[in-house]
Amino acid sequence: MGPKSNERQAEEDEASKITDAINQVQTLTISTSKNEFFRAKMLQEEEKKKQEKDLKDLDSLVQKEREKEKCIKTFLEREATRLARKNREVEAEQELTEIKTEVTNQVKEVKNIFSKKIMDMRREYEQKKMDKMKELTDYKLEITSMLIDADAKGSASNCKQDKQDVKDAYCNARFPYSWFENKHCRELHTFCGTCCSKEFGVKFAEYQSKCIYECQLINGLIPTPPSNDPPKPESTNIEIVNNP
After folding, report:
1. Is 66 inside any structural domain?
2. 76, 156, 169, 238: which has the fewest Cβ within 10 Å?
């Protein structure tokens, strides 16, 4: 071999080395790219699973709180119903005690009357009389219940007011939960009737009428009699509360 052949062989060897180096770099680059791609994809999948798990755990907690809220609401409703029923039972028991005493006295009286006459009465007459006494007792019980409802007797001084803030305070105390009744009570032309009707039941119609008359005089809704001085506002005993 000559010198030229040696140089060519050297060049070919050098070119082969460069080609091998380039191939190695390409292989390393591709391998690294693939690794980074799979690593990024794996991180993405892990992040997705983590987020799904966190959201699922939160959904579970929300469902538990929702069920807890439902249980508490049901318990409170049952407790309110139980307390209301208990209050009604106490009130009914008090009313029945009063009625029972009156009825017991009436029954004793009837028995005393019947004990003297029962030997001389015919069976049919006795049955009719007992039916009539039962009807009478029923009416007395009904009347007793009506009188209990109509037994309210308050104070006219609560109504004999001409200052709006005092009247508003009264209406707020009497009607704290009904917007319509509260508003109706505050009106100038309806305050007197509403207040006096609240203070005095039908059993005290005279007091109620006098209360309305004096209230209307104070508020200038009716003319003042020339021979009399108009009544003056009086102090009220109703606790002032905030507007509903």
Report:
1. no
2. 76
* Residue 192 within any structural domain of the chain: yes
CA distance 126 to 74: 55
**How many angstroms separate the Cα of 17 from the Cα of each of 13, 90, 183, 233?**
6, 108, 103, 119
Residue 174 and residue 189 in one domain: yes
Q: Looking at the 3D structure of the chain, how many domains does it have?
A: 2
Non-local (6+) Cβ contacts of 184 within 8 A are: 190, 194
161 shares a domain with 145: no
What does residue 200 show for φ and ψ, rounded to 5 degrees?
-130, 125
Q: Is residue 8 part of a domain?
A: no
The runs of H, that is alpha helices, within 200-232 are 205-218
Let me know: does 204 contact 153? Beta carbons within 8 Å.
yes
Long-range contact pairs involving 232-237 (C-beta distance under 8 Å, separation at least 24) = 232/160, 233/160, 233/161, 233/162, 233/163, 233/166, 234/156, 234/157, 234/160, 234/161, 235/157, 236/157, 236/158, 236/161, 236/166, 236/169, 236/170, 237/155, 237/157, 237/158
Domain range for 160 = 156-218
> 102-114 pLDDT, tens per residue?
878 877 877 778 7
227/55 Cα distance (integer angstroms): 85
Alpha-carbon span 99 to 228, nearest angstrom: 46
Which candidate, 151, 153, 157, places its Cα nearest to that of 238?
157
Is residue 77 one of the residues assigned to a domain? no
